[in-house]
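Peptidase E: structure tokens wanted.
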Amino acid sequence: MNLLLLSNSTQHGRGYLEHARDTVTGFLPAGGRLVFVPYALADHDGYTAQVRGALAGAGIDVRGVHEGGDPLTRLGEADAVFVGGGNSFRLLSALYRTGLREALTKAVGAGLPYMGASAGTNMAAPSLRTTNDMPIVEPPSFEALGLVPFQINPHYLDPDPASTHKGETREERLTEFLEENDVPVLGLREGSWLRVDGARATLGGARDARLFRRGTAPRELAVGADLSELLGTVPAFDSRA
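Answer:
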């Protein structure tokens, strides 16, 4: 596997992908054909144009997977794939509908570089069960691509001790997930990402991450941490504590 999984594509005060530009352009093949999957948003053309503009100076040819006919043909022509953020339920539903879910799993498993951001990072996990989204559509299943064997929670937010909000914190929601599923969850704060290169996984970006496991307190992970052990996870969903 050759993966770059971003928590977010836009950082406060910066342009699209600007906060991770060097990492992104270093990951994507120079002069290569990048196929972009825009299905997490409704405006596929506008979304693709945004990505094309952000990477215009890097010599990367961006093509929307929806442009010019069959999405599977577009994927087959690509040197890398980028699955963008938005609504994870809408995205996964479209991947099932177009046949891209199975095609992506096979192509990335065979070595096609995969970049995801937000919802696109959610797709890399086995399931949608740790997403933050509202289920605006109902996909055939919560089963995602399973490019990594553990769960990821992009845009992870720490509890605010000064907040008067009485709803569940992100940490409480992930604790509830672990009560029903024995699968580690990597909470990626905004500005962080996970890089997977073969059997090695490394935390990158500008912020630390937080790892949740059943039966233990959440653990802080520093930028640069080696997370390769997570690639050996055997997920156990629907396994109550």
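The chain has seven helices and eleven strands. The domain at 2-150+190-206 is CATH 3.40.50.880 (Rossmann fold).

Cheers.
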